[in-house]
Amino acid sequence: GGTVIGSARCKSFRTREGRLQAAGNLVQRGITNLCVIGGDGSLTGANLFREEWSGLLEELAQKGKIDAEAVKKYAYLNIVGMVGSIDNDFCGTDMTIGTDSALHRIIEVVDAIMTTAQSHQRTFVLEVMGRHCGYLALVSALACGADWVFIPEYPPEEGWEDLMCVKLSE
Fold it and tell me: Which of 40, 87, 89, 162 is catalytic?
C-alpha cells in the first residue's frame, strides 16, 4: 500500500490552494472517481475536498484554468472512502485495512526475539503502534502470551509497578 509506494496526503492539500491544484489536476486528467484509503487525516481531507468541489471548479473557471464546459462535465466527484488504519478503531467493521498485516508483523517480531529472551533469561519490553487505541497491543499480547500489557483504554491500577517487580523476580 502507501507504505510501499511512499504515498501520503501532502501538506499542500491541507490548504485551499493545494486542493485547488488537485482539482485542476483531476479535471485535466479526466478523473471523476477517487478511492481514498487512509485514516482520519486522509478521510477528513477527502470529505473537505468533496464539500469544496463545486467551489473549486468555479474558481478554476474564474482563473481561466478550465472552461464552462469542463465545469459542467466534471460537476460531480465520486469518492469512496476506505478506512486504512492499524488502530482498528472504526465502528461498523470487524477489521480495518492494515490491522491484520500490522498484527502479523508484531507476532513475527515476538517469535524472533522470544528465543533470545529465554536463552538470556531476560525480560523484553515491546512497544507497538496505535495512536489512541490499544487494539494491536491487546491482541498481540494475547497471541504471544505476554505477562503485561498497557493500553490507553484501561490504564494500569495504582501500584502496578510493585506487582510487575514481583512477576519479574519470579
Answer: 87
Reference 104, options 93, 92, 116, 112; nearest CA is 112
Pair 115, 149 in one domain: yes
How confident is the model over 6-16, as pLDDT tens digits?
A: 766 688 999 99
| Residue at 29: amino acid letter | R
CA distance 41 to 19: 14
Which of 15-29, 86-100, 106-120 is predicted with the least confidence, judged by mean pLDDT?
Answer: 86-100
Look at residue 104 and tell me if it is in a domain: yes
Instruction: Name the residue range of residue 18's domain.
Output: 12-83
Q: Is 87 a catalytic residue?
A: yes
